[in-house]
Specification:
It is a single chain. It is built from four helices and 26 strands. It is an alpha+beta fold. It has three domains: 12-55 and 195-247, no CATH class; 59-191, no CATH class; 265-416, Nuclear Transport Factor 2, Chain: A (Roll), CATH 3.10.450. Helix 2 (266-279) packs across helix 4 (305-329).
Length: 419
């Protein structure tokens, strides 16, 4: 029993992770092909981060200079944490109280890092004014925008409501130095813009891929300061797709979820083999110049009464050569009855009722197993290719009863052959 790779998949018209160099303006990423749709674009930097369309920003996080345990002494036991960019110096009286939380440690003693984190998480969110005696205005906290954590014993304070240049964290108060935030050490952190926002723009005339197509490309709103390796994934207009060359069909090997190649046999193998010889340009295979048809050469010819007869005869001759090939093959390897072409029962070619430059081609063959199977395909331009059939699959895998010993290959298939 023979097997073959399953081919002729519907092309997704996608370019995956194309390496694109940053242009001299440090903003433009000129992709090899034009962008088909904004929603399909994905930009990564250094195979590490995905850059959202709105840009990529860092959070504001201040990191203590020393690890716990911490000695908090009496009268130096108040910590102030602010998210206001207006906060200046260590004088908390100058800070924006609406964006500042205060905490007074219960007593002068030694605290581990985990104990400080727990105390601050609870105290900075305290809503009872009687428990927030450290506030200059006598009010409550309860609006904390700070995430308190510990990294290897060092305290960290992160602004959770903003990222980028608008995000600020400032540490102050009499207890700041005891916790690793002295005046001569880090007390303030401001978020940064790692990568600016980007959008899709049409290329300047001098950089267009061609004069007629829309040549859209990604472009950052501001110059990129670093030099990462950018990779862009994007959809491509079908007529510019390098995977299918505008045919809508990708003849490539694909794999299942387990990593195994997807194979076909029996009726599907017969169907694919018949399509291969019908869709191949005769003479394109230098080792077997007899293999194929001249269907593609019919495209562009005038619609004459003899065209239908020529198409029918071309298909019959190709299938006859394929049948002879199987007979020779059977002398050296096993060929199942289901995959073997037994007879060509009919090749019907007629003009489409709404377009006299389009022909409907129906090919009915009989395999050697006597099983009834319905397989369809569509022939179209600019290339004569097999598109998805009525069964929703590319090369046919649905068995239906059509009558005894019949296999339909290309039922109601459409092929553009005129003007």
């Amino acid at each position: 029993m023979a097997r073959d790779f399953s081919l002729a998949w519907p092309c997704p018209h996608m370019t995956l992770e194309e390496v694109v160099a940053l242009d001299s303006d440090r903003r433009s990423l000129y992709t090899r092909q034009p962008i088909g749709g904004l929603g399909t674009v994905r930009i990564t930097a250094n195979d590490d981060v995905v850059i959202p369309q709105g840009g990529l920003f860092s959070a504001a996080e201040v990191y203590g200079s020393q690890s716990g345990p911490f000695d908090v002494i009496e009268l130096e036991d108040v910590l102030a944490v602010s998210t206001s960019i207006l906060s200046k110096g260590t004088d908390t009286a100058q800070w924006d109280l609406s964006k500042t939380d205060y905490f007074k440690f219960p007593r002068g003693t030694r605290y581990s890092s985990s104990e400080v984190v727990k105390l601050l998480q609870r105290g900075l969110a305290e809503t009872d004014p009687t428990k927030c005696l450290a506030r200059p205005d006598g009010g409550s906290n309860g609006n904390s925008q700070i995430l308190v954590g510990s990294s290897n014993g060092h305290l960290t304070f992160t602004n959770t409501t903003a990222v980028g240049p608008d995000a600020v964290v400032r540490i102050g108060g009499t207890a700041a130095g005891s916790l690793g935030f002295a005046e001569d050490q880090q007390q303030v952190a401001v978020g940064t813009m790692l990568f600016p926002p980007w959008g899709i723009y049409d290329r300047p005339i001098e950089n267009k891929i061609d004069a007629t197509s829309v040549s859209r490309y990604p472009k950052f709103s501001y110059p990129v300061k670093t030099n990462p390796v950018f990779k862009v994934t994007y959809s491509v207009p079908p007529n510019r797709c390098l995977r299918c060359r505008g045919s809508y069909i990708e003849n490539d090997i694909r794999f299942d979820p387990t990593g195994q190649t997807i194979m076909i046999q029996d009726e599907n193998l017969l169907y694919q083999a018949a399509l291969k010889i019908i869709l191949t340009d005769r003479g394109s295979n230098p080792y077997n110049p007899w293999y194929g048809t001249q269907l593609r050469s019919r495209i562009g010819s005038k619609v004459l009464a003899g065209v239908a007869a020529v198409i029918s005869e071309d298909v019959r001759q190709a299938l006859s050569r394929f049948q002879n090939l199987q007979e020779a093959q059977a002398k050296y390897q096993s060929i199942s009855y289901k995959e073997r072409l037994y007879a060509v029962l009919a090749v019907n070619v007629k003009t489409h009722s709404q377009d006299n430059t389009t022909f409907l081609v129906e090919v009915i063959v009989q395999n050697a197993s006597g099983e009834a199977v319905n397989l369809t395909t569509i022939f179209t331009v600019p290339s004569v290719v097999a598109l998805m059939g009525s069964n929703g699959l590319m090369l046919g895998t649905q068995a239906v009863g059509l009558g005894e010993d019949q296999l339909v290959v290309g039922g109601r298939s459409k092929m553009k052959v005129g003007q």
